[in-house]
Specification:
alpha/beta; 3-stranded mixed β-sheet; 8 strands
């Protein structure tokens, strides 16, 4: 009888040990940009993927072949950890071509330089921001961990609108999720297509 109990107990302990790791996905450390903010000192750069890098050329040749980076000072918007209101921060963005300016501005929304600020777009993945005839079409992916409550979603949309509408040429913003228009980004606030400047 004792032998049977010890075998059953051993099997239960073994099953418990094996099942304790099931269903758990490895989690990456959250990247809220606090560690990176001092390294880039408020500057966001969009790499020029179309220009191949020449590793065997001389330094003088690199300087003449390197694309001219354009820089611009903009305002980006974050919130506090309670998500009560937006606060703006001046940021300098760098981009290789004029059409990359909008994507650089959106990426600047992802990493506040102040540790007391919270990025509403920190976990979103911006794929593109194409400008055509006064409208910026933003294509993004929103993983589950990027979804916020109703108040956070409203603030996130306000931060996006405030950031992109500061450019005089932008009259409308069309937000797509994985290439398709959606009724709502995170399930709380209705999303019109396009969002127009007030």
């Amino acid at each position: 009888m004792n032998r049977r109990r010890s075998i059953i107990l051993g099997i239960l302990v073994l099953l418990l040990a094996l099942s304790s790791g099931c269903g758990q996905k490895p989690q990456a450390a959250p990247n809220n940009g606090a560690g990176n903010a001092e390294a880039n000192q408020g500057s966001v750069q969009v790499p020029d993927e179309a220009t191949p890098q020449n590793s065997d050329s001389t330094q003088g040749a690199d300087e003449t072949n390197a694309p001219q980076q354009m820089t611009e000072s903009i305002e980006v918007y974050f919130t506090d950890d309670q998500m009560l209101e937006l606060s703006k921060e001046s940021r300098e963005i760098s981009y290789p071509a004029k059409q990359d300016k909008y994507l650089a501005a959106l990426k600047a929304l992802q990493a506040p330089s102040n540790a007391s600020q919270f990025s509403l777009w920190g976990k979103a993945e911006f794929h593109s921001a194409d400008f055509k005839e006064g409208t910026v079409t933003v294509d993004l992916t929103l993983p589950d961990e990027a979804r916020l409550g109703a108040g956070g979603e409203a603030l996130a949309l306000d931060a996006l609108k405030n950031t992109l509408f500061q450019f005089d040429e932008v009259q409308a913003i069309d937000v797509l999720v994985d290439g398709s228009p959606v009724d709502t980004l995170m399930g709380h606030v209705e999303l019109t297509h396009p969002l127009v400047r007030n």
